[in-house]
Automatic annotation (TrEMBL):
This is Alpha-glucan phosphorylase. InterPro entries: Agluc_phsphrylas, Glyco_trans_35, Glycogen/Maltodextrin_Phosph, Glycogen_phosphorylase_DUF3417. One of its GO terms (molecular function) is pyridoxal phosphate binding. The modification N6-(pyridoxal phosphate)lysine is found at residue 624. Residues 1-20 are annotated as: Disordered. Keywords: Allosteric enzyme, Pyridoxal phosphate. Residues 31-137 form the DUF3417 domain. GO terms for biological process: carbohydrate metabolic process. Belongs to the glycogen phosphorylase family. It holds the Pfam family DUF3417. It catalyses: [(1->4)-alpha-D-glucosyl](n) + phosphate = [(1->4)-alpha-D-glucosyl](n-1) + alpha-D-glucose 1-phosphate. The keyword Phosphoprotein does not apply. Gene3D superfamilies: Glycogen Phosphorylase B.
Length: 855
């Protein structure tokens, strides 16, 4: 890496008087002046989904472009003669100018958000995630969580939702997989050289490199800041690999999910505390902070601390202000999946939080992250911390919302599960990143070029007008592309293992471009049951092997380095794919990554997914096949539980055990999928199959797109959160301070709240309730009495009727008679009286979960 003093500055845009605006500090070579504008294109990761400038990169260095798909690397590596020749080629230079002008115009064009919410004036949403899967040019992800975060940034850019993201720059990231002939997995950790990554140092106004500092025990930790551009969205990356740091600390941001829990805690402190400071250092002021999974929850703590310092508030008051603007998305469907840190470990690193400066103690942090704040032995749970510091929490599919309400029920003791304040925003994928060139062309013809930039309202209609033959053509050509790519990858794989020319010849002959192609690729985690399809190898081999109706299978996936069972499952698949009778029909491709995923989801006819319900919070890989005309066959878990209809795909019936699910999977393939694929009309097109494709593309692709997801977040979450945060901050945070007093009073005096005698008068229209409610010293405006009934059988919503506070009870300071009428046919015995906190600006029970029930 170039030392700072040798950094090259760009000659562009020096403003009068001030220091030159530096854009390409980190390009190690000079470019001919006519090609300088290319740096702007190369540094905008928009090239991961827009292919407008592909031809330019190919022209400069076809080999580097094919291998890396990273234009920044092309600029570094292109032979000098090629650059000189291109710079003196008038046609090339004007193509460059056109591409840059178009790029700038696109970034400035009014987008959906500006048009739909012209008055919103939303400050950039601060988005925190431990991983980002934007593309192989910037490999900072392990799997679905990161790919989702990457897709979120891209869709925010498309829609013009203002967003500034924060993450970590891993020197090694997640491991790369190599697999031996025996099936044994090896993990490799290639170095992410920042010089080759499409990122730049984040600079301050004077051109100096931005850093933030954390106070680790006995030494400071310096974090360098890098900037990645994703269209209109900025991603700031924190990097501990600075020579100013203690040698051991430089590796804090080396591996993703690789080192033990101490490094993990440090990474999460860097992401949360360092990340919030990084945004401030970069001049970003946010109203809304979005935590993508609990890893990032320390950001909410640092945000509150900074608020307290800036407003002369206590940490408690600051939490009441900032919580309104914090959003927590949980991605975990089982309690074991939450990050937990032992209190001793957290205490060692408490200095990094500097809570004393805000008049608080480190114990306040530990209390916030415990189910029982008073239990000093309880670990710090990052999901609890997220829930307690964010007024809004959501799961990532409808089913996962339900599962999360159950999982977090214990944080809201004695509240009915249906009222646990966790909703859902179902995930979606950034369609332009996952469609093939061919699918892009078909959709452009059917629905126009700007189809993923608006509200998607006309897509279903457009797709329904596409002729059967065109859809089948898309399938046929795409399958052929995948077959060619799989042969190429397999040949490389065998070559690297040293298997010689015979193996290469064998690779060239695998798979058949006309055979029904199943895809199965994912992390080899046990709950995903990657071997369910393999549970009866003979039956699977028979399915693949029929000469009249051949079926083939492409499999890929990594097992976490510490997951021995997962590694055994990888080995099982690899060995199966070597069987002489299936070798030509089943291929295991190593090193599943975004680039391979793109090829797979574009080419398969059917995508198979077999998670154990309800362990898949959402799952997104199946969404990626939709736009390309692939169909899903999946367990009814995650997104598929809300997406599946009999017209759009296939589902394993719910409630089965592993054996039943395996049987159902084989049966569906043998009796439904295979026959439907091979039932051809006189024109050679399988009519029923194409009908299904069209239904899946037209109805599901828009609904499970990141466009829909980000619009949901913007309208249902970000805008209300920003408005609520502004109200709490106004006027020296008057409302936040009032809420803090209100909550403190409830905490201190809730014991005194008591529901006395209740009278019910019933007639044919319903019931009249009268309850004597004693609330001791709690003012009656701070509470509300309600008539409550559980949902009716089959219903989802409980009955809640607010009661009216009436006459004071004789001889009591704050005792009142509360009354309500409930029009209903249900018996009076279904109803009960309860008292809950009440404040028009508080989220109950998310922020105040006291409750008292009629005995
Ligand atoms: C989409 C994607 C995932 C997530 O897929 P799941 O369906 O959640 O398993 C994981 N890895 C890669 C490389 C992906 O592209």
């Amino acid at each position: 890496m170039a030392p700072r003093s040798e950094a090259r500055t760009a000659p562009s845009g020096s403003s009068a008087g001030g220091p030159a605006r530096r854009t390409q500090l980190f390009l190690a070579r000079g470019l001919p002046a006519a090609l300088e504008p290319l740096t702007e294109l190369a540094l905008d990761l928009r090239w991961t989904w827009s292919h407008a400038s592909d031809a330019l990169w190919r022209a400069l260095d076809a080999d580097a472009w094919e291998r890396s798909a990273n234009p920044w690397l092309v600029l570094q590596d292109a032979p000098a003669e090629r650059l000189e020749a291109a710079a003196s080629d008038a046609a090339f230079v004007s193509a460059v100018q056109r591409a840059v002008a178009q790029h700038r115009a696109r970034l400035c064009a009014p987008a959906w958000f500006e048009v739909a919410h012209p008055q919103a004036a939303l400050a950039p949403v601060a988005y925190f995630s431990m991983e980002y899967g934007l593309g192989e040019g910037l490999p900072l992800y392990a799997g679905g969580l990161g790919v989702l975060a990457g897709d979120h940034l891209k869709a925010a850019s498309d829609l013009g939702v203002p967003l500034a993201a924060v993450g970590l720059l891993y020197q090694e990231g997640y491991f790369r997989q190599q697999v031996e002939a025996s099936g044994e997995q090896h993990e490799r950790y290639p170095y992410n050289d920042p010089l080759s990554l499409p990122i730049q140092p984040a600079l301050d106004a004077g051109g100096g490199w931005l850093h933030v500092q954390l106070a680790l025990p006995g030494r400071p930790l310096w974090l360098r800041l890098w900037r990645a551009q994703v269209g209109r969205t900025t991603l700031l990356l924190l990097d501990a690999n600075d020579a100013l740091n203690a040698p051991a600390d430089r590796g804090i941001t080396a591996k993703l999910y690789g080192d033990g829990s101490e490094v993990r805690l440090l990474q999460e402190i860097v992401l949360g505390v360092g990340g919030w400071r990084a945004l401030e250092a970069a001049g970003v002021t946010s109203e809304v902070c979005h935590l993508n999974e609990g890893h990032a929850a320390f950001a909410a703590v640092e945000r509150a601390r900074r608020f307290a310092l800036a407003h002369g508030a206590t940490l408690g008051e600051a939490l009441w202000a900032t919580r309104a603007g914090n959003v927590f998305t949980t991605h975990t469907p089982v309690a074991a999946g939450f990050d937990r840190f032992p209190p001793e470990l957290v205490r060692r690193y408490l200095p990094a939080f500097e809570l004393e400066a805000a008049g608080a103690t480190g114990e306040a942090l530990l209390r916030l992250g415990r189910r029982d704040p008073g239990d000093a032995r309880e670990p710090l749970n990052m999901a609890v911390l997220g829930l307690r510091t964010c007024a809004r929490t959501n799961g990532v599919s409808r089913l996962h919302g339900e599962v999360s309400r159950e999982l977090f029920q214990e944080l809201f003791p004695r509240w009915p599960r249906t009222e646990v304040p966790i909703g859902h925003v179902t995930n979606g994928v950034h369609v332009p990143s996952w469609d093939s060139h061919l699918a892009d062309r078909l959709w452009t013809d059917a629905c126009g070029k700007a189809r993923w930039l608006g509200t998607l309202s006309n897509l279903e209609e457009g797709l329904c007008a596409v002729p059967d033959a065109a859809l089948w053509e898309l399938r046929t050509v795409s399958r052929g592309d995948l077959v060619r790519y799989a042969r190429f990858r397999l040949e490389q794989q065998l070559g690297q293992r040293g298997e010689g020319p015979a193996a290469a010849a064998q690779a060239a002959a695998v798979l058949d471009p006309t055979a029904l192609t199943l895809g199965f690729a994912r992390r080899f985690a046990e709950y995903k049951r990657p071997n369910l399809l393999l549970s009866d190898p003979a039956r699977l081999a028979a399915l693949l092997g029929r000469a009249d109706r051949p079926v083939q299978l492409v499999v890929a996936g990594k097992a976490h380095p510490a997951d021995e069972l997962g590694k055994r499952l990888v080995a099982e698949w690899v060995r199966f794919s070597h069987r002489a009778d299936v070798r030509a029909r089943a291929v295991f491709l190593e090193d599943y990554d975004v680039a391979l995923a793109q090829r797979l989801v574009a080419g398969v006819d059917v995508w198979i997914n077999t998670p154990r319900r309800p362990w898949e919070a959402c799952g997104t890989s199946g969404m990626k096949v939709l736009v390309n005309g692939g169909l899903n066959l999946s367990a009814l878990d995650g997104w598929w539980a809300e997406a599946w209809t009999p017209e759009t795909g296939w589902a394993l019936p719910p409630g089965g055990d592993d054996a039943a699910d395996a049987a159902a999977l084989y049966r569906l393939l043998e009796e439904e999928v295979v026959p439907m694929f091979y039932r051809r009309g006189p024109d050679g097109v399988p009519g029923a199959w194409v009908t299904r494709m069209r239904a899946s593309m037209a109805r599901l692709a828009p609904r499970f797109s990141a466009n829909r997801m980000v619009r949901d977040y913007a309208e249902r979450v970000y805008l209300p959160a920003a408005a609520s945060f502004r109200r709490r901050c106004a006027d020296g945070a008057r409302l936040a301070r009032e809420l803090a007093r209100w909550a403190a009073e409830l905490d201190a005096r809730w014991r005194e709240v008591r529901i006395g005698p209740v009278r019910v008068r019933s007639d044919e229209h319903g019931h009249g309730f009268e309850a004597q409610v004693e609330c001791g010293e709690v003012p009656c405006e701070a509470i509300r009495a309600e008539v409550y009934a559980d949902p009716e059988p089959g219903g989802a919503e409980p009955v809640r009727v607010a009661m009216t506070c009436g006459a004071a009870l004789a001889g009591s300071a704050e005792g009142h008679l509360w009354t309500a009428r409930v029009a209903t046919r249900r018996p009076a015995a279904d109803f009960t009286i309860r008292v809950v906190p009440s404040h028009p600006e508080a989220a109950v029970p998310a922020e105040a979960w006291h409750i008292a029930w009629q005995r």
